[in-house]
Each structure stands twice: as structure tokens, then as C-alpha cells.
Design brief:
This protein is 48% helix and 13% strand. The chain has 7 helices and 4 strands, in the order αβαβαβαααβα.
Length: 169
């Protein structure tokens, strides 16, 4: 992973590869797009400091996010990075009469390679307004800069259901 991140950085800085010259078009931002690095291992923390603009938590709820975010902040400071890391998180949701089934079916299938752990992920999906509002408030309190609410159903109505759930928050 480190080699890949270094290679992307080199390409984005305009270095040539092979005989074809630089790969383009050049990124809008010097050095390439800001990267959010995920993971909870020591290597993920190191990569966040070395290559990232911040960190993203891939599920787990506000409490796990808070613990990971604290690790990232400490690594960021110890690594001598200026400013603060951007902190983001992802939560799965499915709303409506069929929300729980849709979330369970999608997440159990997607994460089937994890065995029984797939069921734990599916059980953590947000499937009602109260759960979504509590999650938003929890992530906000934990210092999350951006929360991505990922629908577990391809039905377009999920966007409207989510909008209605958080409209007067």
C-alpha cells in the first residue's frame, strides 16, 4: 500500500513513467487530490500522517469513530503535521417499511466473506429516524467533519426518506 500511495503521489506531481511522459491530465490541486486513509492499524495511522489529508472510519458508530479519531489526532501531532486531520465516517442506512430487510440483505451479502461478522455489520445499519439522528449527533460530538450516509438499497426513494428524516433536525 505504501508503494502505491508513493506512486500516486509521484504521478500526480508530474513525474514521467516509462517512455510516454507524464500521465495526465494533471490534478487540479498541486500534489493531487486530498486522500482520506481508512483503517485502525498502526500502519493505517502512519499512512494517514504520511500520505493523507485525513482519516475515514468505515462503520462502527460514533464511539468507535471517537477512539479512532483520537488515535489519528495523536499520530498527526507526533508526526509533525501542521493543522488538523480531516475526519470522516461512513454509516449504512435503509429506511421505510422494508428498511431492515434491505439493510440486512445488502450488508450480509456484501460482507459475506467476513463470516459471522457480516451479521454484526448488518445489525449496525441505521433503519429509523431516531437511529439516524442519534448517529449524526454522536458523530458530530466526536468531531466528525463529514458523515457519509450510504444507502443499502438502490431505490431512489431512499434519498427522499433520508431527507425527510433529517429535515428538521
Amino acid at each position: 500500500m505504501d508503494r502505491l500511495l508513493a506512486e500516486m503521489r509521484a504521478i500526480w506531481s508530474g513525474e514521467s513513467r516509462g517512455t510516454a511522459g507524464p500521465i495526465g491530465p494533471a490534478p487540479v490541486q498541486p500534489g493531487g487530490p486530498p486522500l482520506l486513509i481508512g483503517g485502525s492499524s498502526a500502519a493505517a495511522m502512519r499512512r494517514t500522517v504520511e500520505y493523507g489529508a485525513g482519516w475515514i472510519a468505515g462503520g462502527g458508530g460514533p464511539d468507535l469513530f471517537a477512539a479512532g479519531a483520537q488515535q489519528v489526532r495523536e499520530a498527526w501531532t507526533q508526526g509533525g503535521r501542521a493543522g488538523v486531520p480531516r475526519l470522516a465516517a461512513l454509516s449504512y442506512y435503509a429506511l421505510g417499511d422494508d428498511g431492515k430487510r434491505a439493510a440486512n440483505d445488502y450488508l450480509s451479502d456484501y460482507y459475506a466473506f467476513l463470516g459471522d461478522y457480516a451479521g454484526m455489520i448488518a445489525a449496525g445499519a441505521l433503519t429509523d429516524r431516531d437511529a439516524i439522528l442519534a448517529s449524526i449527533e454522536g458523530f458530530e460530538a466526536a468531531g466528525c467533519d463529514e458523515l457519509i450516509l450510504f444507502p443499502c438499497s438502490p431505490a431512489l426513494e431512499q434519498v427522499e426518506l433520508l431527507t425527510n428524516a433529517i429535515a428538521w433536525r
